[in-house]
Design goal:
8 strands, Rossmann fold, about 350 residues, alpha/beta, about 10% strand, 2 domains, globular
Length: about 350
Amino acid sequence: MLTHRSRTLAIAGTISGCGLLFAACTTDGSGDANNSDPTAAVVATTTQVGSIAEQITQCAGGETQILMSAGDDPHQFEASSAQIADMVTADLVLINGLGLEASMQRSIENAESDGAEVFEVAPQLDPLPLGDDHDHEHDHGESEESHDHAGHEHDHGEDEESHEHGSYDSHVWLDVARMADGAELVGERIAETSGDDTYVSCGADVAESLRETDAEIEDILGEMDSPRLVTDHAAYGYFADRYGIEISGVVIPGGSTDGEPSSQDLASLTSLLDDEGADALVTSKANTNRMISALAQETEQDIPVVELYESAIGEPGSDAETYQDAMLYNANALAEAVN
């Protein structure tokens, strides 16, 4: 049986329809949340996907185990043998995908070969190419109306096959609207695996929570005039694409954290900051990049360093313990630093 890491959800602070969400949890059928036996046991790799899955399974009477913790770098995290065994025995394993979990890819493949059912979330969410300038529009406003979730007309199978790992940006969670679509897909997939349609309605409720969070973030960041950021690595393409942010420079290119910039690269970034400035230097709270601090000291400009919840959400009990809370924290922290 899975070792479930319980977490008190702070959904009430992030959605206005909390009563509706938990009304779905107390239905009479196999999805009864009061049932002592979970209707589905889910394992999720990252804290962001795990937070969303946990809200869905708690609503529907299941359980979610999250492999990574708030201090883990998803690019470099390696699963333990016990965690691999949990993936094999779970009803469903949720991974971000698109090469994010690079250091545990072999473990995922081994678990899958031993019978684990694995669902990659990011390839289903219209991923952006690595290195793209992200100028194109992703019309989330229409997605809620145009996606026929009841009819399962997603046609994601073709997308999953065509999105080669490594050629697309894996940091999809930095666009909350995309993750709202993901919540619906996760609910549907758990329902298919468990045979319990309660997960479909719970996924839809969590998706609505996420769309409300997305609207809040748009309001917060919309008060700024296209702020220009220099980031620790190429992780913020979705954030820029969705919320009108400009990425002026990146310390570690390529979308992963396992690299080092050359002295020439750092000199070029310093010159860029001296000549053009930036509104903020951004790094991850969980895995702070020392090069960001070095750039702040080297440049002639007075540029704030902002630590955001990028690689993981916050610890249980913190002000960023859910995915919604973490993304709202990011928006507020950035707005406060820039303004």
